[in-house]
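During the no-cost extension, the postdoctoral fellow (Dr. R.K.) reprocessed legacy sequence entries with the updated structure-token encoder. One reprocessed record is reproduced below for audit purposes.
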Amino acid sequence: MATMAPDAAEIEALALAAAERLPPLFRDHLADVVLHVTDFPDAEVMEAMGLESPFDILGLYQGHPVGSEGAEMTGRMPPTIFLYRRPLLDAWADGEDSLEALVTHVLVHEVGHHFGLSDSEMEAIEAAAADGD
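Re-encoded structure tokens follow.
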């Protein structure tokens, strides 16, 4: 019986499995997006987002959305999706969804920012990804 909270590698594995359930167009574009799992956002993100607590954010997309002007610039960092392990674990403990469902939800939301999608479009994609479970 596991008694330890999932570590960053386990959260990453859940996110990668969720990404595999996304529509092919998304998976193709995500090939160049870095997935990074860390315990908390850094001080720069905290300040930029106006967060009062590092538990106030579950994930973050940093980079140019697909098709935006300047998206092909050279010398810039690759687009990155950050998943914040400790806030995710707290949300999981406080909620009714499985950790897999929560990670899928956050990943789809952050992927949606990459594609410039509306909330309703993200909800439809999340529902399709959940059907793959």
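The longest strand covers residues 34-38. The chain has six helices and three strands. The remaining legacy entries will be reprocessed before the final report is submitted.
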